[in-house]
Amino acid sequence: MNTILYPQPALRQPDHIAPCVDMLGRPLTDLRISVIDQCNFRCTYCMPAELYPSDYPFLPSSERLSFDQIETMARAFVRLGVDKIRITGGEPLLRKNLEQLIEMLARLTTPDGRAVSIALTTNGSLLAAKSRSLKEAGLDRVTVSLDSLDNGIFQRMNGVDFPVEKVLHGIEVAQAVGLHPVKVNMVVQKGVNDSQIVPLARHFRHTGVILRLIEFMDVGGIGAWSRTHVVTSDAARALIAAEFPLVSLGEGKPISHETASRYSYLDGGGEVGFISSVSQPFCGDCSRVRVSSDGKLFTCLFAHDGLDLRPHLDTEQGLETVLRRHWQRRGDRYSEVRGALAQAGGAQRKQYPTVRMSLVGG
Known about the structure:
Number of helices: 10
Order of helices and strands: EHEHEHEHHEHEHEEEEEEHHH
Strand order of the largest sheet: 7-8-9-6-5-4-3-2-1-10-11-12
Largest sheet: 12 strands, mixed
Shape: globular
Number of strands: 12
């Protein structure tokens, strides 16, 4: 692999005039916080039951970051440029009194006085019961993982026979209380749920819900990934466009610092997005940082180790210095070099470690 020369990171300027950028010039704008590593689903591509049995040693509550620690950390990130915070897991709605954390984070403002956007990703199982209290606490948006409308396929994929009707009801309640827009993420696996691409598109057209199709990625520390299981975004988009013509909203590429290439339905039926981290990597525009439920910072979803932030949470100024320095040294571009890693192993299968998905969040 060729040696890559990066420009020197920008020096810190007074009053945060200079943006916090990494070695590739990418600013820090998006923070994803995993509040719990437990989940009540056992999705086959994330937490399969054979690897995560009922007695799996998830983190005890004493080892998770407290809400006060998360707020301290979030304030430091916001001063460095973060204006979007997403709560993840595991299943974040399993974290007790999560509304309290949402309320604390919703009070944050950027140095120029803008409100920080607060979003949450969930499997939807508890969304109907929690939507109103989350909205009242200050949650802006919600993303729901939903891989099939067919109940048999959905139950096989979630691993616990949870019915799809309850997730759909949760989506309806979230819309009704004003969590807008609701996004639905579908992870597409060839031969598993690719038959559901068009049915999901048809179901959410004209509803205001934004469907996003995600290429099956080699994340979470699970070794069963193979490129042969990937349905590319181009293929998925062709299936939808054959029935519902599409118009690009960004020349077929993600808008700056977003992950999805966005399309609208020609007839005004809404929007659909495609996340192409396997076939069309977007590392060069990645502005996201992740913090695991035990307080480790990860600058890439595909990392295998992170920086422990807990020793630095006592003083906000010291924490901010650590965060800035760590981001300025960031040079991650995993998806862009995935092909080389796979070829080095002699196959297009995953042969390299990554952090446990439920610990660091998606």
